[in-house]
Amino acid sequence: MRARLNRAGRMLMCFAMAIAVSGTAGARPNHLIGVWGGPHVGIIFEGGLADVILDCAAGTIDDVLPAQGQFAVEGTYRVATRGYENIDQFFSSEKAKYVGEIGKTSMILTVVRKDGTTIGPFTLTAGGTPQLAPHCD
User: By the 8 A CB rule, do 61 and 86 touch?
Assistant: First the structure.
C-alpha cells in the first residue's frame, strides 16, 4: 500500500510541476491576439504577428507587439490599385514601421513608410469592426 501512495504522490508532484512550468489554464498571452478595428483600419493578430488592412492599402506587422505599452515594430506596407484586381496581379510591398501605444482595450497606430511619410494616427478597439472605405477613389 505504501508503494502505491508513493507512486501516486510522485505522479501528482510531476503533474503539479508541469502545470507550474507551463502556466495556468486561461492565462493571458504576452502578445496581442484577435481582431482590432476602427475607422479606416483593421488588424488581425495571430501568433503574435499581424495583417493590417487600411483604406486602399494593406500590410503586415512582422514583430510581436506587447500586450500593453508603447511599440515601434517593423513590417510591410503596400498600396492597392484602383478598380478591379486580377487574381494574378502582383502587389509591391515596401518596408514600413508601425508605431503607437496599446492600452487595455484600445490602440493608437501610425504607419511610417520607407520615405518617411506617415499615415494615421488611427484609433483601434480590441474586438472592434474595421470600418473601411468601400472604394479607393
Answer: no
E strand or H helix at 10:
helix 2-22
Mean pLDDT of 86-96: 74
Q: Which backbone phi and psi does 4 adopt, to 5 degrees? A: -65, -45
Contacts of 120 (CB under 8 A, 6+ apart): 41, 109, 110, 111
Confidence of residue 14 (pLDDT cuts 50, 70, 90): very low
| Residue 1 CB neighbours (<10 A) | 5
Q: Please give the model's pTM, rounded to 2 decimal places.
A: 0.71
Q: Confirm if 33 and 43 have CB atoms less than 8 A apart.
A: no
Determine the pLDDT at residue 42.
95
Vertex 111, ends 105 and 115: CA angle to 5°? 170
